[in-house]
Specification:
Elements lengths: L27 H10 L5 H21 L9 H12 L4 H4 L23 H20 L28 H12 L6 H20 L3 H6 L5 E5 L5 E8 L5 E6 L1 H13 L27 H20 L6 H8 L3 H14 L4 H8 L12 H14 L6
Antiparallel strand pairs: 1-2, 2-3
InterPro entries: CB (IPR044068), DNA_brk_join_enz (IPR011010), Integrase-like_cat_sf (IPR013762), Integrase_catalytic (IPR002104), Integrase_recombinase_N (IPR010998), Tyrosine_recombinase_XerCD (IPR050090)
Keywords: Cell cycle, Cell division, Chromosome partition, Cytoplasm, DNA integration, DNA recombination, DNA-binding, Plasmid
Organism: Paraburkholderia pallida
């Protein structure tokens, strides 16, 4: 990105005028890069934060004609309304369903208007960025710190998940994928395995992309029962054990056989958990995983639409779903089956385990049994 010198922020009106600074950045782009560098070991966070910082920087330079370090609170109110309706659309919004590469002339910063929840999320990220730039001594003040705050905190509610009806339609869609050619057979097998992992484990897309087959292993519990687990390195570089139920292990064997592999992974196997259609070594990117999920959701939405006009609104919602919806779906459906909330929390990695938990094998085994018994996918 090349920014004109008068909009680079080198002389921004909100720049700190004192010599006390904790970063060496002399312009806005360098300052944002320094902020993003703090999250270099968390790729998913870097991607999300960079996207919001980039959108703001592009808007303020190209459309608003100001340096980012000159923005006022009023400017950011204008930007907040812009997020809800990025205009002119020809400049800001992509016209294709498939995301083109950044080098493509069809690339745009937005796929469409952001929902109110997405706007709030974007501003939360930007508020954190501005606050850090103030703490770093780069900015004199945070223009978002004046944002109106709600007097009463709302109880958070997860709304982005698949209902049981939608989930059945998604399963039927996957089971009906074409399998006339060898490539179609591998693609259908990959979709089935991907959705199996997302639903039965609640893993994030980034975790699936970074987990090798060798992370699936078994150990005997105190009663001598063989139990399978997946060792996952998750958000914040924290490691957790996720139950690999008998159903999931059977699906893994089915998936591996489709690729001509032995049914069970071996210790230390570096093949990715989700295999490419050609070759077995290179893992799919987080974006590729999202694209596969989106394509399946689009097909499932079409199935809903043919049921009649009364299903069109639900079909539109399903078509807008992403891979992360399946993580919420896994958690929601686990609680629907009355699995202990502590087990759900540990399965999804919402909280780090206490240091002494490495000794609590009996509790781990109870979590495995509860997950395996009550949280099932049920392929036909």
């Amino acid at each position: 990105m090349h920014i004109p010198s008068d909009l680079s922020g080198a002389t921004g009106t909100n720049r700190t005028r004192t010599a006390l600074r904790h970063i060496s950045a002399d312009d806005d782009l360098a300052a944002i890069t320094a902020w993003l560098a703090r999250y270099a070991d968390v790729p998913g966070t870097v991607t999300a934060y960079r996207k919001e910082a980039e959108r703001l920087l592009l808007w303020t330079v190209i459309q608003h004609g100001k340096a980012l370090s000159s923005l006022t609170h009023e400017d950011l109110l204008v930007y907040q309304r812009f997020l809800a309706d990025p205009q002119p659309a020809w400049r800001w919004v992509m016209t294709t369903r498939k995301k083109p590469g950044r080098a493509s002339p069809d690339w745009r910063p937005f796929a469409g208007a952001l929902s109110p929840a997405s706007v709030r999320h974007a501003l939360t990220i930007l508020n954190a960025m501005f606050a850090w730039l103030v703490d770093a001594g780069y900015l004199a003040g945070n223009p978002l710190s004046l944002a109106r705050r709600r007097g009463v905190a709302r109880k958070p509610a997860v709304t982005r998940y698949l209902t049981h009806t939608w989930w059945e339609v998604v399963k039927t869609t996957i089971e009906s994928l074409p399998a006339d050619t060898a490539r179609e057979q591998l693609h259908a097998a990959r979709c089935r395995w991907l959705f199996t992992v997302l639903y039965l484990t609640g893993l994030r897309a980034t975790e699936i992309a970074s987990t090798p087959m060798g992370a699936v292993f078994w150990r005997r519990d105190t009663a001598g029962v063989e139990r399978w687990w997946i060792e996952v390195h998750g958000k914040g570089n924290r490691t957790r054990l996720v139950p690999a139920t008998d159903e999931l292990i059977a699906e893994l064997a089915r998936y591996r056989r489709a690729h001509g592999l032995a049914p069970s992974p071996y210790q230390g196997e570096r093949r990715p958990l989700l295999l490419p259609l050609i070759g077995h070594e290179k893992p799919l990117s987080r974006g590729s995983i999202h694209q596969i999920v989106k394509e399946v959701f689009a097909l499932a939405a079409d199935r809903l639409r043919v049921r009649g006009a009364e299903w069109h609104a639900q079909a539109d919602q399903l078509a807008s779903a992403s891979a992360h919806w399946l993580r919420h779906t896994a958690g929601s459906h686990m609680t629907d089956q009355q699995i202990d909330l502590r087990f759900v929390r540990d399965n999804l990695g919402h909280a780090s385990l206490a240091t002494t938990s490495v000794y609590l094998h009996a509790e781990d085994d109870a979590r495995h049994e509860a997950t395996q018994t009550r949280h099932r996918l049920g392929w036909n």
